[in-house]
## 1
Amino acid sequence: MTTSDAHRAIEAVWRIESARLIAGLTRIVRDVGVAEDLAQDALVAALERWPETGIPDKPGAWLMATAKHRAVDQFRRNKRLEQKHELLGRELETRQEAAAADLDAALDDDVGDDVLRLILISCHPVLSPEARVALTLRLLGGLTTAEIARAFLVPEPTVAQRIVRAKRTLREARVPFEVPQGPELAARLSSVLEVIYLIFNEGYAATSGEDWVRPALCEEALRLGRILAELAPREPEVHALVALMELQASRLRARIGPSGEPVLLLDQDRSRWDQLLIRRGLAALDRALRLGGALGPYALQASIAACHARARTPEETDWERISALYDALAQVAPSPVVELNRAVALAMAFGPQAGLELVDALASEPTLQGYHLLPSVRGDLLAKLGRLEEASAEFERAAELTRNLRERALLLERAAEPSRGCRDARG
Amino acid sequence: MRVMVLVKASEESETGKMPSEQQLAEMGRYNEELARAGVMLAADGLHPSSKGKRVRFEADRKTVIDGPFAETKELIAGYWIWQVRSMEEAVEWLKRAPFGGGAEVEIRPVFEAEDFGAELTPELREQGDRVRAQAEQNQARS
């Protein structure tokens, strides 16, 4: 095995083990920053040792043992560190006896709870959304700072700083490493779902840059969602989010044309939809619905996505049902963007005039100023009503507003020829 | 990336002998671990080749051959579909699987449309996708 082969293998082990490792260590040292440093030290040790010795049989246990030895060494050697991390020292002292048992336990059954605690703390509401995303990808996804920076098209130091600050904030706020009960758990989980969906959407409809989609980010979000669904199996909205992401991801291949341009939902070649993901999405939605209770925002959105997934041709789409689902969504999660989508569904179900009335009512909505989909949808409805000049102007405005270059090109084409491709729905 | 993990047949699987309770429990735990890591997308086990059939294609005729087939080690007994970030990750996962006794398990990356390059014209790709989607839909209904 060459060194670079070994390093790639170690990276793979790290990706598999890092979340459990950091979660287990956080339970012991009660500080996610210290835990991550210890885990990184163990990784460095592995990078030194494993190319010679080969990867041990239980690499997770090896990394955990090494990280714990580091912790004990540091604590013994460095009095200053002891004072600085008094908490860490005390914890370790009292726990040294139980260390061996702890080790096994940390890699055993309650590791699931540790990982859940780690997800909850990474998505804690004291952190800004950007910090939650960065910390989650780093601690749960095992991504490097450089990878996160590349994925979000921001400079690496920015991401590094977000992570450092996030860890400091968690320490200063003394956020406990625990799984809260009852309504607080639901509130905390909803913050986690928001973060996961944010990551997914950044991959699904890149807000900026040259690529229309970045599938690696979608895959990362899906993986986090699938993990969460295993950790919190009785939460309907968790399954619903997984369903929504699986169903949307099933269309990824069909959303990009031959030269990288976006292809809208109704123009997509449905034979390119990924049937494996559709099956998984419908199954996850089924699990969410069987858990009962009122449909939450993700269950409603997943139900809408399922309507599209079940239609073999655009003409088979049950727009009346989609329109009713949007009505329900507008009740539980009212937002101008939902209203805009509702307008599209309404137009498909009951004609462009019905949709246009709703869109016009939204025109003065302050949060939609600068949102390119408002003029884009309006342009489409106007085109359908034969008001081509007005439509063209709307498409031009939409093109000015989008930050995605591929999407801009598409909108400019429609501005030049507004009657063409007269059906619009986001894929 | 997606990979297919191919489990080869053995004397036992070919005679239709079911795994022991312990083997089943170990495999169950392993599958759970894969699911908990968000890696497993699909998994199936196959009946022995005695229940299988082959069709041989020659210039002017097609011959149906009934199982069982002789070359046990070349036969497939089951598969997983995994979502991983690299082949190395797939290897690390597979190393944790509860196999023993000389079993050999194969990992193959699944083709993405991009892998075909210029050979695959948009028309050909469309046709292939349609056929595959139809097959998958049929499977979903069955």
## 2
Amino acid sequence: MDFASLSTQLLVGLSRAMILFIVCAGLSFILGVLRVPNIAHGSLYMIGAFAAYSIFTHLGSSSSGFWLALILAPLVVALVSLVAERALFCHLYQREHLMLLLFTFALMLILDDLVKITWGPEYCSVLAPNILRGSVSMFGASLPRYNLFLLIVGPLVAIFLWLFVNKTKIGKISRAAAVDREMVGAVGINVSWVFAAAFVIGCFLAGLGGALVAPTVSICLGMDHDIIIEAFLIVTIGGLGNIWGALVGSLIFGVTHSFGVLLWPQFAIVFPYAAVVIVLLLRPRGLLKSVW
Amino acid sequence: MFRGITEKRLLWFLAIIFIVLLIFPSILPRFYTYIIALIFVTSLLAMSLNLVVGYGGMFQFHHGVFYGVGAYTVALMLTKTSLPVWVGFVAGPVMATVTGFLIGWFCVRLTRLYFAMLQISLGSLIWAIAFRWYTLTGGDDGIHGVPMPALLSSQNNSYYFILVILTICLMAMYLIVKSPFGRTLQAIRDNPQRCEAVGINVRRHQLKAIVIATFFAGVAGVLFVVLERSVFPDLLFWVLSLEVFIMCLLGGWFTFAGPILGAAIIVSLRTFVGIYTEYWTLVLGVILILLIFFLPEGVMGYFLGKFRPLAKEVAHRSE
């Protein structure tokens, strides 16, 4: 294990953590405001990736196609989630908590098959634009450019989220709704629309994660099942509903996985799960303060 | 007195069902026998989950793991060791119970969603190990062609075996639910604080419930191997666990026999909708949404709710 492979592996882990962070931040945001673990989040992530593929190929697989896909695919996902929320989900807010959870599961089942109908079971791939292809030599290690790009995007998203939650009115309202929803309703704010906004923003982030991951993986059915379980675990170890917890959790998850690849490739997948178990045993309610 | 008569009738009814089920393999085609046996196995799994979810009020979100552990244990014992078959059959539920105790021991410290999340993470750990340990578990492919003793080699015989074990397990579960322990568990579900206050050890009761439920899940896992002669990592995956959870809700999670109904509905839907379309999860999703909107008590709960006022009225009149 030399320095070069170590730093490459670390970069891969960190960039994976950035994707996970973007997805989990959305999940955590929904969890914080609506108090529902959105099981359909993985499907929305998958739709983001497939939508990015479609937009990319429609625009002649060019570099500009990639950038446009990166902007449009999350909007498509946001639209899908807005329709689902306004048509069905918003009628359930008064109901028992478990029913909301089940609704998101039903949504996952439906969206998965809709993806299968729309895009078919084939593997799809998206090419990164020229400027992000290849790798950079740094300190004797070759670092893939796209992963470096993800390392820039992740913190940018984090900063935007921080600004959104702390500086904008809707962000503040959603934070208030997370703490005390009755009070928010009592001061004359339409809680139903706050919930809708939170749900759509969370799903937008899932779509963004999907669009960002598209050039690095082969897009296929089933990618939702893998990410959603990871996202749940990350959100749990970070502290439910805490966006910074999602960041910490993603870093733990991504880095342990990449070191698992170095140490014991066959069981690399076990390392992050074991890390999660250890964290939960030491701090059962997550590393950072949960909003609950 | 009226109550006594209805219970006697219920017993007769159950006896007739049992006899009908005994006759089934000789009159039905092989395929249907197989489907019914699969419904038996799945309903045992769903019933065991309902002990924790319906009666215990805990968010047991990864119950499939215990089913999978039971199935994997017996499959490994029968293929990799030359121990007698019954040792494998006993080891399956025992391993599931041990796993259930370990996972439950950590989980009962937490409540509701945290309980669910911790269980999903611990369960996924087991899934990841089974998925990756190619030399032992066959990884992705699982284990196929598990040898069965001659007694269980024909499909009809394994059907009878499953039916008998299911009946015994259901009786045992019924007795557990009606026992003081079962009553305490339901009291904890309805009001944990008050139970704590009157001196009930809430965590210990919850852990006991989990251990009992995981034992039955392990039995279901063994029966699955008897029926299918193969195991694969999807048995341990969380999607299966949620499906079983839905069976409980679909059938009615506050009723004893509801999960059987839920399992029957889901298994037959998957089989028969699956013949016409490959998009059967779409159908399941739509049904689930309809259920959430119109039948939140589950199918069984709905019918019981419809008839219960009637029964009460009759009971009132007879007094």
